[in-house]
Specification:
With 101 residues, the protein is an alpha+beta fold. It is 36% helix and 9% strand. The protein is globular, with a radius of gyration of 14 Å. It comes from Rubinisphaera italica.
Length: 101
């Protein structure tokens, strides 16, 4: 993914914005990245990516990011949403659509 590609589709937060937030604010936990435009607080799809960026910021040698186009990323997110996996408004667990309150 390129720097200007969206990572958080719910709140339209780009990879560049997330990496700059991590660099400038130096969060102590990955969950603090949610303060960057609400990233990770919508459907939950991007949380794994936010955690990876956080982990890479803590490591001396970051892991290479898997090659993925924005279209592939968007397709995988759509499949995630279609499968009914999304966070509850009050917790971290995912539930099928018919169990979301």
């Amino acid at each position: 993914m390129e720097l200007d590609d969206k990572v958080c589709y719910c709140f339209h937060v780009s990879k560049r914005k997330i990496l700059n937030y991590i660099r400038l604010h130096k969060p102590r936990r990955a969950s603090q990245i949610s303060q960057c435009g609400g990233a990770g607080t919508g459907c939950g799809w991007c949380v794994a990516y936010l955690e990876r960026y956080f982990s890479d910021s803590q490591a001396k040698s970051p892991h290479p990011e898997p090659e993925m186009t924005p279209a592939q990323y968007a397709k995988m997110r759509a499949e995630y949403i279609d499968a009914g996996k999304r966070k509850r408004a009050t917790g971290n667990e995912t539930l099928p659509d018919d169990e979301v309150s």
